[in-house]
Every structure is written in structure tokens, then in C-alpha cells.
Design brief:
By secondary structure, the protein is α/β, with parallel strands linked by helices. It is built from 14 helices and 15 strands. Helix 4 runs antiparallel to helix 5.
Length: about 450
């Protein structure tokens, strides 16, 4: 009897999409950059790009956003390319979505809807999930009409009123449910925000320096954090590391970790959600409490992908977003990450090769996985934190040992002597410290 081998395979259908972009006056480079970013966003949610359709018009068509000819072109390509979703590069009105879905008989989403889906897939903590759900429902609410034939059903009443008429339209019931859920989410998020504020105030009272990683999505913020943890974490870095992946919006959840470099002051390092051009307002609003971690930092580390040709544009978007959340005036260190890739390109093309790591003023060029780069980054953070400090000598009575402990925990004490008259220390103090401890400062 022959042995027969049976192979059990499960076929997973790949979702394929057509990307649609409309240029209404942007430069060719700007439009191309936006479309390239849409491709990356699409890949980030595991959707395969089957084709890209672009058009130039003075203004979007009010009914279908793109011209009727382009709509028919897309309709003809649907079966040929086995496409099940159409993704537009800009925000569509509810009416445009309804018209397009009616003509094309397939799902249509815009850039905002795509980013919302990515956020929904990436959200890990309860707070992030609630924030995303709130943003999704606010996005969905004005788009209820025409989202399917089921929304036109009539629902009867309940109990003794069940025979007293046809009841409310399903649309109104759905709208009411969504509005009720948004209200519930708002209350839950307010409670979580109170918890976050309590945690933040506890960190503020500790007087440990606060440093926040900010920047465009996929610039390498999580890589910087994980490697700083590897080299300088007080505890094992394995349990403290964050997700690190080469994709847009790999991490959404804000994390705070303590960094304790030897011979330098410790600080709390927070990693925030990445920024992107045309980040939906609903998401900025929903994630405001999370993004606001940056507002309370003493120093911002703006991580920039120096190997990306569009890095200057990414810096502009980051600057605008920081201003929007009220963090535009905080001191910044510009961390040009992946400088080693630029260095390699320079070597291969025979150009003058830059040094990596390299620090110049508020700018530092590094490779986040290189130990020498991280040492240079820590030195830059120390310089920035000490810019407004002044070396002072204090003579504290032995009854004020708590002040000594507080200053030592901040890593700003240079020397400590125990004398008959009290504890004499030299420390780097900020203006607020000088005012607070003025009674103990000696000439």
C-alpha cells in the first residue's frame, strides 16, 4: 500500500486596493510624496496595492471627487485587478463616499478612514483603544446615511407600544446608539485622563528631569528608546522595551521609562505616537491627553530619519503638530537618526563623508543602534538640561536630609561634605531651585 501525503493549507485572501489621488494645485514633488505616503499607510494595514490612479483638476468634483471618466476607469479595472477596496488620498465628504460606492459597488475609504483603521489595529492599551473607538465613531456619525440598506429598516416599538406604529427608522436608532457610545467613551477617557494626570503629577513631584521622544512616524523613536534602555536602564531592558518595527504607526501607546546613565543625571524618557502629514483632527483630539506628555517635558528629542529625502518636510509637520498641542516652546534636540545610511551613500558616491556620531549645537547625527552614538546623545541631553543651571554651594542643617536626598536623586549634586555646622554640598541648580533653597545658599 502506497504511502500518501496530504497537505492541509489554509488560503488567506489578500485584500487588494486601488489608490486614488487628485492633484488640485500642489507641486508634482509634493503630490508624489503624498501618494508614496498613502502607499506606505496601505501596506501598514496589510493591504496590497493593485494599482494607482491619479488625476489633476482645478477643484474636486462635488459628487464623486474625481471626474466621471476616472470613476468609469476604476470601475472597469475592479474585476480585472481583483480589487475589493478603493482608497482616496484626501478626505471625502459623506455624499462623495455614498455616490462612489453606489457607482463602483465596492468599499470606498479616504485617507482619514485608512489612518483610523491603522490606529484601531495598533492600539494596545485600554486607553488607546478607547481613544481610537471615539475617533472612529465621530468619523462615522455624519456618514451613517446610505451606509447600507439595513439602515433604512424600520424598527418596531417595545412592550405595549409595539403595535402603535412603525417605530423609529433604523438610521435614527444607529445615530442614537453612536452618540450614546461617544458619551460613554468621553466619560471613560476623562477618568483615565485623571489617572494619567495623577501619575504625571507624581513624576513632576519627583523632580527627575523629563525627556520626550517626538517626531514623524517611523523615524526611529522606539529604536532610540530601546537602545537607551539597553545601555542605561536601571532594570532589565527586556521587560521595558517597546515595539520596534519598520512601519508607519508601529506604536501608539505612550510609555515612560527611567534612564540612569553612569556619572550623569537620571531622567524619565517618554515615547509618544508618531506624527504624519494631514493627521486627522479627530485623532489629534482623541489622543490629546497622550500627546500632551510632550508638554511636560524639560527637553524634547525630535527624532528625524536623516536618510529620508523628505526629512525637512517631516520636520515641518512635527513643528506644526507640537505647536498644535502646546509643546512648541520646549527646548529641542534634533536627533538625525540613520545618519550611518547617509554616511554609506556618501562613501559609495565618492563624496565627502560625514562623521557619525556628530554633535553641533542643538543637532546630533547618530545611528540609534550604535553605542558611541548613544553616549553622544546622552551627553547632548545633559548639556541641554544644564543650560539654565548655575553651580551653587549650600549648607544644610542635618535636619534637612530630605533636601539632600531630593537633589541627589536628580543627579545634580557634584560634591557632598559632612561638617560640624551641617551638610555642605555643591549642586547645579535651576532658577526655581535657587529661589526655593535661597536660605541655605552660601557665597
Amino acid at each position: 500500500m502506497k504511502n500518501e501525503l496530504y497537505e492541509n493549507t489554509q488560503k488567506i485572501d489578500t485584500v487588494r486596493a486601488i489608490l486614488v489621488g487628485l492633484n488640485t494645485g500642489r507641486s508634482d514633488d509634493e503630490f508624489e510624496r503624498s501618494m508614496d505616503e498613502l502607499k506606505e499607510l496601505t501596506k501598514a494595514i496589510d493591504i496590497e496595492v493593485a494599482s494607482t490612479v491619479t488625476q489633476s483638476l482645478n477643484a474636486p468634483d462635488k459628487g464623486t471627487y474625481i471626474g466621471s471618466g476616472k470613476v468609469q476607469e476604476i470601475a472597469a479595472a475592479l474585476d480585472v485587478l481583483d480589487v475589493s477596496i478603493i482608497i482616496f488620498n484626501d478626505s471625502l465628504s459623506p455624499m462623495q463616499v455614498r455616490n462612489l460606492e453606489k457607482i463602483l459597488d465596492t468599499e470606498v475609504i479616504d485617507r482619514t478612514g485608512l489612518i483610523l483603521q491603522i490606529f484601531a489595529k495598533r492600539a494596545g492599551t485600554r486607553e488607546a483603544r478607547l481613544q481610537v473607538e471615539s475617533a472612529q465613531l465621530q468619523y462615522m456619525l455624519p456618514r451613517l446615511v446610505g451606509m447600507g440598506k439595513t439602515l433604512s429598516r424600520q424598527g418596531g416599538g417595545s412592550g405595549r407600544l409595539s403595535n402603535k406604529g412603525s417605530g423609529e427608522k433604523q438610521l435614527e436608532l444607529d445615530r442614537r446608539r453612536i452618540e450614546h457610545r461617544i458619551s460613554e467613551l468621553s466619560n471613560e477617557l476623562k477618568n483615565l485622563e485623571k489617572e494619567r494626570t495623577t501619575q504625571r503629577n507624581r513624576r513632576l513631584r519627583s523632580n527627575i528631569a523629563r525627556v520626550a521622544l517626538v517626531g514623524y512616524t517611523n523615524a526611529g523613536k522606539s529604536t532610540v528608546m530601546n537602545n537607551l534602555l539597553r545601555m542605561y536602564a536601571a532594570e532589565s531592558a527586556d521587560d521595558k522595551s517597546v515595539l520596534e518595527k519598520d512601519m508607519l504607526f508601529a506604536t501608539l501607546d505612550t510609555t515612560v521609562r527611567k534612564i540612569t546613565p553612569s556619572g550623569r543625571r537620571p531622567f524619565l524618557l517618554s515615547d509618544t505616537v508618531g506624527f504624519i502629514s494631514e493627521l486627522p483632527h479627530a485623532l489629534v483630539k482623541a489622543f490629546r491627553s497622550t500627546l500632551e506628555e510632550a508638554k511636560y517635558a524639560d527637553v524634547l528629542l525630535e527624532v528625524i530619519d536623516f536618510s529620508d529625502p523628505e526629512y525637512r518636510f517631516h520636520m515641518e509637520i512635527t513643528e506644526k503638530t507640537l505647536a498644535e498641542i502646546g509643546a512648541g516652546d520646549i527646548p529641542i534636540i534634533y536627533v538625525f537618526n540613520k545618519a550611518d545610511l547617509v554616511q554609506k551613500e556618501q562613501e559609495e558616491s565618492g563624496r565627502l563623508v560625514m562623521d557619525v556620531p556628530k554633535a553641533s549645537g542643538d543637532r546630533i547625527y547618530i545611528c540609534a543602534k550604535d553605542d558611541a552614538s548613544l553616549d553622544e546623545l546622552i551627553a547632548a541631553i545633559e548639556r541641554k538640561l544644564s543650560e539654565d543651571e548655575q553651580e551653587c554651594e549650600l549648607l544644610l542643617p542635618y535636619t534637612e536630609g530630605g533636601i539632600v536626598n531630593a537633589l541627589e536623586n536628580r543627579g545634580i549634586v557634584k560634591e557632598t561634605k559632612y561638617e560640624p555646622s551641617g551638610i555642605r554640598i555643591r549642586a547645579m541648580l535651576q532658577r526655581a531651585d535657587i529661589s526655593l533653597y535661597s536660605d541655605y545658599i552660601v557665597d
